[in-house]
Amino acid sequence: MATSTTAAAEPPPAAGDRPPAVELAGITKRFPGVVANRDVHLRAEAGTIHAIVGENGAGKSTLMKILYGMQRPDEGTITVEGEPVTFKRPTDAIRAGIGMVHQHFMLADNLTVLENVVLGAEPKVPVFLSRGAARRRIRELGEAYGLTVDPDALVETLGVGDRQRVEILKVLYRGARILILDEPTAVLVPQEVDDLFRNLRELKQEGLTVLFISHKLDEVLSVADTITVIRAGTTVATVDPSEVTARDLANLMVGHELPTPETRESTVTDTVELSLRGVTVAGAGGKPALDSIDLDIRRGEILGVAGVEGNGQTELINAVMGLVDLVAGTITVGDDDVTTWSTRARREGRVACVPEDRHRDGLLLDAPLWENVALGQQTRAPFVKGRFIDRDGARGRTERIVRDYGVRTPGVDVPAGALSGGNQQKLIMGRELTSDPRVLVAAHPTRGVDVGAQAAIWDELRQARASGLAVLLISADLDELVGLSDTLVVLYGGRLVARVDPATTTLDDLGCYMTGTDPTGGPVGSEEPS
Amino acid sequence: MTRNRLALTLAAPVLAIVVATIASAIALVLTGYAPGDVLSILADQATSVRDLLRTVNRAGPYYVSGVAVAIGFKMNLFNIGVEGQYRLAGVVAAAAGAALPLPGPTRVIGILAVAVLVGAAWSGLAGLLRAYRGVSEVIATIMLNAIALGLTPFLLTRYFEDDSEGFAVRTRPIPSGGRLPFLDFLIPGGAPAGARFNPFILIAIAVGVVYYVLIWRSRFGYDLRASGSNPHAARASGVDAKRMTVIAMAISGGIAGLVGLSTILSTPYSYTEESFLSGLGFTGIAIALLGRNHPVGIALGAFLWAFIDVSRTALSSATPPLPREIATIMQGIIVFSVVIAYEVVARIAERRDAAEVARRTEDPPPTTEPSTAGAAS
Ligand SMILES: Nc1ncnc2c1ncn2[C@@H]1O[C@H](COP(=O)(O)OP(=O)(O)OP(=O)(O)O)[C@@H](O)[C@H]1O
Ligand SMILES: [Mg+2]
Q1: Which chain A residues contact residue B353 at CB under 8 A?
Q2: I need a labelling partner for B161 at 20 to 30 A (CA). Which of A225, A270, A364, B62 fits?
Q3: CA nearest A391 in B: which residue?
């Protein structure tokens, strides 16, 4: 396989003789305690999809934020379409035709798609927003690139796939010709990933350039024209996807083998630890968001929930954690009926939770790491002594988590917001697993973590399971679900529509159930007795 | 490195004072006055025991008011109602302090308790409205202010007025058990003529200690700060957001209830419309901002504000007299300068940190080549 740091061996056809869309040379960026980028060189040809891969904290997001004008490089130059540029703020980058969709979505929930798209795209001469014109333009863009979303829908009612499309529309609306997508597929199920990639190819066809970051190496290989590998803040290789395998990429990134989430020897016991009976949660428009869910998870069992996001996963998590009122049903943990317990009482009863959205529900971004580790256990040792916070105890536990879970950080007093996305996730996993839980609700436990850390987290989960933990696993990553779960159920439209054996099921069958069809033909009924 | 950090922490307030001085001087020159005159008045004041004493006496209520506002800020609640809370608490506490059959010094405790309870109840109403009816606490406290400002004189003239004495509208004087002694003995060389050391400063200090321990060291404070910094995550961690809103508002109002006690536990030992200080609630907002919600910062802010207040008298009695509005202008300029200075210093700190990293990582990056065949760079 032939690779080079500059253009791929054969320039992709669309490139023609246009100047490279983006050329970064000698970029260095330092933060307190770390060098995020060090002498990075990257060149993305116009009209191509250029992927960037690398370990957690390797500096991918930082590099892209520099290109988008959110961070200013300490050294180095940026050239866009042949013109040297310096961006002081994102507005400058937007003017130069660059748009970015962040690792963590930045949409306003309580506004409509149209308002979100138009927000910040400074109106021209008339100060007032012409909704008609904006709506028309969004429709046009949507049709041109296959990004169809109802402009008048409220964002909070949209699933992640649609939110993603809104983020991309927002960027295109501002006239971007170079699109940066930071881990766009982390939250998407395979069908949605396919849709997204179709959109990206369409954008490419129109001559746009896409830079995208991902930890899912198979996806990277299938969609990218060129792949740049970043390690410890610096570019180590630029490769052509047709000439490498996922294994090669992983090696380039970390020197690890690709992990497989295998877990065959069963540790399931007979004692039911978490039990849901007829759990029903109200949803929008009279239709229950969660409809008569019956579930049992035993000690030492991982129960996986497959499904396209927005089919009741959020409500299921909230129901178990006591964050939403049940319309009907009961929840028991061990021998206790916890249906009416507060969230705090459940937490103290050793029900732990890795939330779906780590920024929204899992972290205090401007508080130090040790305060973040106390979050959810702030009524227990080692975080408190009596009614007072035990700072030393909390720091000690945090240091342990940082060490054991490989969280890359200059210390436990830095704010959580300074960690890279994957390292924030590791911190949360560590926090929940060290809380001595009996039940763990784990939503996307490896969202955004690199392949090496993913293997480590899977190991931790398996170990915890072997020592008797009952896990409710919700994930968009089907390999993870199939590989970790002892039992697998499918959630569709707020109901459990199937229960399958992860050892024998195929991804195709799962995909069918998840979109509401039965693999044997026809629509699915309710879950079959197992 | 830590010493540098300390220097940076001090740099912000120093920078703020420098900027404020320059900006004030410019304002004076533009209006045709000599900055030097004002400066020498302020310098005289800074060396006069009498003026310093007046400053400290004034700073006490400011401090308590600033802390009351800051507690709300820590949870992203904007308690604009300190004004109404302390006035209402003041008149009720004064009346109760005179009327309650409490033996000896327990009367002081009784007065404090009544003041805290009335303040807490009044702001707690806003907390309840916010938590259970979604009414913005800003609107609710503004409305409650209006009601309290009407209710206070009504209560005073209708129920609490002491008719045994002349025309002054006042509550009955507090018996000796409810009076705190002056602290004149603490002043080296004794109190200067016509000035006394108001014991309220002790209450202010106690409030500061409680504020620090409660917010930064207690479990409750952790929950409160978590709710302020990310309400979703706080709720997911088991904090009852509604309860927290009500309690935080109530505590803020409870502290606010103490603001007016400097003229009740000390001279004139009763609530009178002339002696009871007004406007402290709004000043508290500026002082909480000045002190960045930090217990020590608020103390410095309160002292500075009081110091400039005191200069008003000297300014207007100077020859030729200087406009006393200069003091108000300076106070405004200081608030701006502080906001700007903290921003500037934060940026400098960030840049220095980055430079520090650069120095420590001068050695070239790891050049270990991946072992896979063909992956050259
Ligand atoms: N605002 C910040 N302040 C301090 N340090 C930061 C900041 N942003 C990033 N860093 C540090 O810079 C390094 C690179 O972070 P970056 O977010 O670019 O990683 P990444 O490659 O995107 O990782 P991930 O795959 O986990 O998202 C990390 O060590 C991180 O802690
Ligand atoms: Mg990242």
Answers
A1: 31-33
A2: B62
A3: B217
Q: Is the dihedral of CA A310, A313, A317, A323 positive or negative?
A: positive
- A248 → closest Cβ in B222, B234, B375: B375
Instruction: Specify whether the CB–CB gap between B174 and B111 falls below 8 A.
Output: yes
Contacts of A374 (CB under 8 A, 6+ apart): A383, A389, A394, B222
C-alpha A525/C-alpha B10 separation (Å) is 68
Neighbours of B4 (CB within 10 A): 12
- The answer to whether the CB atoms of B376 and A344 lie below 8 A apart is no
Q: What is the mean pLDDT of residues A392-412?
A: 93
Q: What is the pLDDT of residues B162-171, one digit of tens each?
A: 877 667 788 8
Q: What does the pLDDT read at residue A41?
A: 93
Closest CA to A396 of A387, A385, B265, A386: A385
- The 10 Å Cβ neighbour count of residue A272 is 17
Report all structural domains of chain A as residue ranges with CATH numbers, in order of start: 15-104+175-254 (3.40.50.300), 272-350+437-514 (3.40.50.300)
**CA pair distance A89, A67, nearest whole angstrom:** 10
- The residue whose CA has the least distance to atom 5 of ligand 1 is A418
DSSP string covering A35-59, please?
EEEEEEEEEE-TT-EEEEEE-TTSS
Confidence band, pLDDT 50/70/90 cuts, at residue A199: confident
Question: Regarding predicted confidence, which is higher, B233 or A1?
Answer: B233
- Minimum CA distance residue for ligand 1 atom 22: A61
Residue from the list A235, A364, A388 with its beta carbon closest to the beta carbon of B233: A364
Residue count of chain B: 377
Residue whose tokens read 């002339």:
B274
* Residue ranges per structural domain of chain B: 60-295
Whole-number Å distance between alpha carbons of B374 and A386: 60
Helix (H, G, I), strand (E, B) or coil at A336: strand
Residues of B with CB under 8 A from a CB of A: 216-223, 225-226, 229-230, 232-240, 350, 353-358, 361, 365-366, 369-377
Q: How far apart are CA B263 and CA B97, in angstroms?
A: 13
A36 and B CB contact within 8 Å: no
Read off the amino acid at residue A470.
A
Q: Whose CA is nearest to atom 17 of ligand 1?
A: A420
- Residue B131: half-sphere exposure toward Cβ, Cα within 13 Å: 17
pLDDT greater than 70 at residue A526: no
Are A330 and A277 contacting, i.e. CB atoms less than 8 angstroms apart? yes
What is residue A354's predicted lDDT score, i.e. its pLDDT?
A: 95
Longest distance between any two alpha carbons in chain A, whole Å? 71
CA distance linking residue A373 with residue A395, whole number of Å: 9
- The reported pLDDT for the residue numbered A485 is 92
Asked whether A233 and A40 are in contact (CB, 8 A), the reply is yes
Q: Which ligand is nearest to the CA of A65?
A: 1
A452 and A426 in contact (C-beta within 8 Å)?
Answer: no
Cα separations in angstroms, B287 against A15, A299, B61, B62, B293: 60, 56, 11, 7, 9
Q: Which ligand is nearest to the CA of A55?
A: 1
Which helix or strand (DSSP H or E) is residue A34 part of? strand A34-44
> Which of A416, A421, A382, A425 has its CA nearest to residue A400?
A382
- Nearest CA among B261, B259, B285 for reference residue B271: B261
Indicate the pairing of strand A209-213 with strand A49-54.
Answer: parallel
- A361 CB near a chain B CB, below 8 Å? yes
Nearest to A474 by CA among A338, A353, A337: A353
| CA–CA–CA angle B211, B214, B217 (5° rounding) | 120
pLDDT over 70 (residue A524):
no
Question: Which residues of chain B are modeled with pLDDT < 70?
Answer: 1-6, 8, 165-166, 353-377
- Interface check for A59 against chain B (CB to CB < 8 A): the answer is no
A61 lines ligand 1 (CB under 6 A): yes
Q: Which residue has the higher pLDDT, A216 or B368?
A: A216
